[in-house]
Specification:
It is a single chain. β3 and β4 form a beta hairpin. The chain has an eight-stranded antiparallel β-barrel with strand order 1-2-3-4-5-6-7-8. The protein contains six helices and ten strands; from the N terminus they run ααββαββββββααββα. The longest helix has 13 residues. By secondary structure, the protein is an alpha+beta fold. Helices cover 17% and strands 30% of the residues.
């Protein structure tokens, strides 16, 4: 039997309505540690239109050390959700370098989207734990979004993976709507082979049980993202297409 998986509804609205999160009670949820999050993840399923024409979507999270230069300190201020708010007192604790790499279906060239994730300090709001404010780097510095982990765990119900030393890890992430993109949801796999059909079906069942109709509709639009493992690390270019692709 797999370990017990807990999925929570988003703590932020899927639409312009500010009342959604307040209407949905938060289940007991322990956010993943940075040691679990850091490293490279492979996007196996998504609702975001950009990934319908993409393959081998990988996201790498790398903890950021405390800044040592004035330019890094400026980045600390500009990438915070509010430099005078609750994140200002701990400006680098939990910060992540966010690197997205992918290929178009019709191209071998690897594109990248670079950003910085600043943790949202939850205070008394337990749902806010495990949430980050993303801000782009370079030409994407004008773009920002909030994302959070809805659930995570181990893919332990695939018989084909039972002989591996360690079970595959997974995460379910949610992205708030922005001026460029609608609300979105991704499934992540630590393994480039993807997730087992059994764990994908189990996650979808749990999403359907959450008392949030908008989230259920979003989950119903999930599609599989192609993973073929054929990428060229030396052929990467930055993605400047903000309006076409948005943030993820």
């Amino acid at each position: 039997m797999p370990e017990k998986i807990t999925l929570r509804p988003p703590s932020i609205s899927l639409s312009s309505s500010p009342t959604l999160a307040a209407l949905v009670p938060a289940p007991a949820f322990t956010p993943p540690s940075l040691s679990f999050i850091k490293g490279t993840w492979h996007v196996t399923h998504s609702t975001l239109p950009k990934w319908k024409s993409a393959r081998n979507v990988r996201i790498t999270y790398t903890p950021i050390a405390r800044p040592s230069s004035s330019s890094d300190r400026r980045l600390s201020r500009t990438s915070s959700h509010d430099s005078h708010g609750p994140t200002a007192s701990l400006p680098w604790k939990g910060r992540l370098d966010d690197l997205v790499r992918y290929q178009r279906l019709d191209s071998d060239r690897v594109k990248r989207i670079r950003g910085v994730d600043t943790p949202v300090l939850g205070g008394e709001d337990e749902q806010a734990a495990g949430s980050w404010d993303w801000r782009g780097r370079g030409m994407l510095a004008v773009a920002s979004a909030r994302w959070e982990v809805l659930g995570y765990g181990l893919d332990e119900i695939d018989d084909n993976r039972a002989k591996e030393d360690t079970p595959n890890q997974f995460m379910v992430t949610f992205f708030a709507p922005t001026v460029f993109t609608p609300a979105g949801m991704d499934f992540y796999s630590r393994s480039p082979k993807g997730l087992s059909p059994a764990i994908v079906a189990h996650i979808k069942e749990l999403l359907d049980q959450l008392p949030t109709e908008e989230l259920q509709k979003l989950a119903a639009s999930l599609f599989e993202v192609k993973l073929d493992g054929q990428w060229q690390v030396d052929a990467e270019v930055d993605d400047q297409e903000v309006r076409e692709g948005g943030l993820r």
